[in-house]
Amino acid sequence: MSAFIADWLNILLRWAHLVVGITWIGTSFYFIALDLSLRAREKMNPGVFGTAWQVHGGGFYQVEKYTVAPEALPEDLQWFKWDAYLTWVTGFGLLLTQYYFNASAYLIDKSVLDLRPGEAILISLLTMGGGWFLYDRVCRSRIGQNTALLAIVVFLGIVAASYMLTNVYSGRGAFIHVGALVGTIMACNVFMIIVPNQRKIVASLLKGEAADPKYGKIGKQRSVHNNYLTLPVLVMMVSNHYPLLTGHPHSWLLVALILVIGAMVRHFINRHEGGDHFREISWTLPIAAIALVIAILMTAPRVDPAMAGRAVADADVTAIVRTHCVACHAATPTHEGFTEAPKGIMLESLEDVRRYAALVDMQAVKSEAMPLGNETGMTEDERHILGAWIAGQ
């Protein structure tokens, strides 16, 4: 695939992914907030669990939720599913065009594990499919009947998968696959559980039968899971822009911290919207803050002893940059994946390197984000030499 076509596919898929993803997230946030705002009233229709009064856009709305389902199926029933389906489809399309078609550059790092592109792609597919299967089995087991225990098991499962992925893929490949795994779980919750259960309830109504409340209960459980996973998965999906996350030697621990931060913030917002007093939910904010501070400290810049006081000749830096950087970062790149320098950054001279020294330091010294997939085999000593030269400028 030519770089020009790949770029346009990437742009269109990313645009579509953002649009449908925002819609799905907004729907999830709204319905959880709606559910928590329901109140029992003196006068309610038969079978109604609770109602909520809301105001938006200059209008007032009254919303009802049935304990199980209304006695008869309304003619204009609206289904909320396509935003979830299309979010996964466009996300997988991005994974395909960005990571599968360019597996050697974006997915594989031979210093981590020497894989062939086909092997890397197979591991990707098995991780997403197997992750959903294991998650679903746990939810259906006795563990799934205990909310706190289930949350811990799911958390540990995602962290374990993150550890595995960081020992298989490049830094950015591992992080994006944690997001893909969680996103697959969320989409499958809708496709495999929530919507099918809703269809079972609809089928009962069409037969004139009473709907089984267990289907709504199970659907609600998975919907809540999706809601709590939303904030962490958003960070995973933009992680390729931040080498301080993807390039960290213990990035799987950062995944664990991101899960904690996202879950705590989401719980605080949910319970606040549900009417809980601040003192009842304030415990979530210190936990999120502590996790954030740990993440910041983990990623804080450190001076490598190998760089301290090391004299580096300009010629050595020029040789390193020409070997490992200029194939992509040039006015006319020779790398088959690029028709122009990524982000417009060219490193064809020492003045260029000085101009972008902070970015080079972050991407190629303090992390191994560059070269992509370490295709050129940049060594640790070369990174130390480059870092020492930048520190002396």
UniProtKB/TrEMBL annotation:
Transmembrane segments: 12-34, 85-108, 120-135, 147-169, 175-195, 227-245, 251-269, 281-300
Keyword Transmembrane helix: yes
One function term, GO molecular function aspect: electron transfer activity
Keyword NAD recorded: no
Xref: SUPFAM superfamilies: Cytochrome c (SSF46626)
Record's keyword terms, sorted: Membrane, Transmembrane, Transmembrane helix
Domain Urate oxidase N-terminal: 4-296
Lineage top rank: taxon: Bacteria
Pfam families: Urate_ox_N
Protein's name in the database: Cytochrome c
